[in-house]
Fold this protein.
Amino acid sequence: LFYAGIPAALLLASLGGWWMAGRAFRPVNRVLAGAQRLGAQRLGERLPVPDSDDELRRLALTLNRLLDEIERAFQSQQRFVADASHELKTPLTILRGEIEILRKKTPSPEESREFLRSASEELDRLTQTVENLLILARADAGRPLDRSRAVRLDEVAVQAVERLMPFARAAGVRCSVRVEDAAGEPLVGGDPDLLGSLVFNLLHNAIKHSAAGQTVEVAVTTDAGGSRVAVRDHGAGIRPENLPHLFERFSRARTPSPRGAEGTGLGLAISKWIAEAHDGRLEVESRPAEGSVFTATFPRLPIEESHPAAPARAADA
Ligand SMILES: Nc1ncnc2c1ncn2[C@@H]1O[C@H](COP(=O)(O)OP(=O)(O)OP(=O)(O)O)[C@@H](O)[C@H]1O
Ligand SMILES: [Mg+2]
């Protein structure tokens, strides 16, 4: 009887083991089945979270949080592609419409001139939008910048003012530049072209939103906290409800600028990326009817980096 009992006990033990393992793995299988159902088309679904207080629950919660982030990123990419397509399509539609009109009749010299003026305006807009989209694609690719050059923020600011002088003059807006470098040169380790675009974008906006006779002030300062460039205007200002979305791509506040011409709605998104890619930040303070100030702040460059011949990099100041 004793010997006959051994196989039976073994059988019972393995059956029991199988049953217990099955029970133990049931929650794992449920999570696994949930994971297998997921796909690019079902990004809204989430894994079942077991009631237990163990690793499996934490794993499911972590994966669900990851899915939240993926879904958000996916949606913002979809929105971006839709907005970009719309922005590219609008000038193309206008151009096509104008060409159709011209095909149906022989235009007078004035009509031809007007067509060429309007066509070249739309082409400028298309070019600007495509250039801006390429900059943002570079931003999204996440490639690090070459930050080996010590760039003088004051020189960048003066160049931006010079480039925009004809635009400011045509608008009747004065521009002033003030540099305070008692605490050291306003140096930023980075890409001079991108830093130039940042100041250009802020200044362009400031002039666009100022009325004739007003002044736009650019101030470059340095202190222990870093170097900063601030662009202040006394124009229309921005309504508080528009402030949170200002730096989003294609965010154009519905208030038209006194200059009329619409931009691409990408300038501030690009400027924010440029500031952050240089370990800096871009902030805004604005009040309707009083004006706005946009400030880009960058960490202070270690002294050694301001001398190209210096052999080694010192610890961050
Ligand atoms: N200095 C400012 N004063 C008032 N409103 C501003 C100012 N700067 C930006 N804005 C508002 O923020 C919106 C977004 O600015 P952003 O520079 O990103 O786009 P844009 O100027 O319309 O186009 P782009 O710069 O791409 O040509 C603007 O459309 C405008 O409504
Ligand atoms: Mg702009």
